[in-house]
Structure formats: C-alpha cells, structure tokens
Amino acid sequence: MALLRHLLLLSLLLPFSSSDDSIGYYCDKSFNGGHIQADINGVLSDLVAKASVGGFATSSYGKGGSAIYGLAQCRGDVSSEDCSTCLKDAAKALPESCPSQADARIWYDYCFLRYDDENFIGQSDSGYAIILYNVENATDPDAFDKKVGEAMRTARAQAVAPGSGGLGRVKTKFSPYITIYGLAQCTRDIQTLACAQCLSSAVENFANYCVHRKGCRVLYSSCMVRYEIYPFFFPVDPGSSSMSKVGSYFTAILSP
User: Fold this and answer.
1) Quick one: 98 exposed, middle or buried, by C-beta within 10 A (0-12, 13-18, 19+)?
2) Which DSSP letter does residue 63 get?
3) Which tens digits make up the pLDDT trace of 168-186?
4) Burial of residue 183 (number of CB atoms within 10 Å: 0-12, 13-18, 19+)
5) One-character DSSP codes across 104-151
6) pLDDT digits over 64-104, tens only?
7) Summary count for the chain: helices (H), strands (E)
8) Which positions make up the signal peptide (predicted)?
9) Where does the chain have alpha helices with state H?
10) Distance CA 245, CA 206 (A)
11) What does the domain layout of the chain look like in residue ranges?
12) Which residues, at least 6 apart from 104, have a Cβ–Cβ distance to it below 8 Å?
C-alpha cells in the first residue's frame, strides 16, 4: 500500500546557500541514555574517518538491540578534501540539529550522513524527501522540460551502469546560451535495481514541483536527482565563471 504523504511547503525564497550550509535534516526517535549517545559518537567518528578516504562508508557501534548504524556518502564528483570537510561539518551539525534523536539524517551539497538504531543499510529509502525548485520558469518551457527529461534519463542510465559507483552526470545544450546540467546518484549500499527504482521515484516528483522550473532537485535518503542551468558538478566546464547558484528556490518537504 502506498504511503500517505504529508506536504509541508515552505513559502520561503531561499538564496542559494554555500556548500558549507546544510540543505536540510530529519530527526526521529527520541531517546534517554548516555550509552546511546556514546554509540552515536562512535559511529560518527568511524564514518568520517572511513568515508573521507573512499567517499562512502557504513558503520555500526554498540551491541545487540542497542546498536547504532550509520552511513556516510559524498557526491561522487567532489574531491577527497571537499568530501572530508563536508563530512566533518555534517558529523558536528547532525547531533546538534537532532539532539537525543536516534534516527537522524542531514543533507549537504557535497555529502549526506545518517544514523539510526535500526539497521537500514542495504535497504532503499524514499519515504522522506526534500525538494528544492527554482522560483523562475524557463523560456520556451515545454521544450525545456522535454530537454530536462532527456538529460535526466541519461544521468539515471549512467548511475545504474556497471562501474559508475551509482553516479551519473550529463550536460546538454538547450540553446546557444543555455546548458542544462543534470546529476543522479544513489547511495552505494543499495543494489542496482533498487537504485533504478529510487531514481525513478525521485524523478516522478518533477511533475508536481519542477515543471518549467529553471532548476530542481529531489533528495531522498538513498538517492538524489538534480538539474540546473549552471555548472554545479565537477569537473567545471572550461570558461565557466563560477558554480554559484542562480536565482532563488522554494523548498517542499514530503514525509510518510
């Protein structure tokens, strides 16, 4: 049975945040007990150390039913230095954003970090979503949407291809002056079929939030999709002046 979803639409114009700022976070499962916090701290320390090297890690800390499980992943195109910095920021911010919460997740431009007292590793999770969409519409919107669809199909195909590490990137010309940049990525703990299904579910949200929009992204706990009309992933195109956000964005939250 499909999950009933509640929409919280934040009618707020968001200036483009820097890569140092979190995009959003999720908190659940209040707890009392210093041993749980100690296990959380242990998982966070382990995740930062491991994922800073390879861009991805899972971990567990504690014993039996009181164990804490964690996952950290950086966007597949960022440098190890940027990855490490992002993970350290996330590991510091997440317990502060979700104090005494056993299920906590935080999203940044460059990385994603989560922990839980239930073993979620290897299970695809699309039950909670953060959606950011540009407040401005594209010129020739129908043709633009068609081009976005083509770009995202390519990015999704790349993300599920063998050896991709769950990452797909694409850039395509919409006009002589406008290039569409698209990215799709899954967390590396889920199987290829689950990755494809997660990305498909994420793109389905475009119909409700991203139609005609100059940019949009959908962030799940197991995958993400994004497109913009400026270069936001690495390597940066020669001659590009910056990777700054263009315009302002609305945020929508979908929760089970």
Assistant:
1) buried
2) S
3) 999 999 999 999 999 999 9
4) buried
5) EEEEESSEEEEEESS--TT----SSEEEEEESSBPSSHHHHHHHHHHH
6) 778 999 999 999 999 999 999 999 999 999 999 999 999 99
7) 5, 12
8) 1-19
9) 34-54, 80-97, 141-159, 192-204, 206-209
10) 19
11) 22-116, 128-255
12) 25, 26, 27, 28, 94, 95, 97, 98, 114, 115, 116
The two three-digit tokens of residue 89, written as one number = 């920021």
Inter-residue contact 135 to 64 (CB < 8 Å): no
pLDDT at 13: 46
Residue 51 tokens read as: 């994922």
By the 10 Å C-beta count (0-12 exposed, 13-18 middle, 19+ buried), 173 is classed as exposed
Query: Is residue 246 over pLDDT 70?
Result: no
- Helix or strand or coil: residue 21? coil
Which residues neighbour 237 within 8 Å (Cβ) at sequence distance 6 or greater?
171, 179, 231
Could you give the CA distance from residue 52 to residue 82 in angstroms, rounded to a whole number? 9
| Confidence (pLDDT) at 15 | 47
Which amino acid makes up residue 118? E
**d(C-alpha 61, C-alpha 40), whole Å:** 7
From CA 231, how far away is CA 215, in angstroms rounded? 11
**CATH domain 128-255 topology:** Killer Toxin P4; Chain A (3.30.430)
Choose which CATH entry (3.30.1490.270, 3.30.430.20, 3.10.50.30, 3.30.300.30) describes domain 22-116: 3.30.430.20
Domains 22-116 and 128-255 belong to one CATH topology: yes
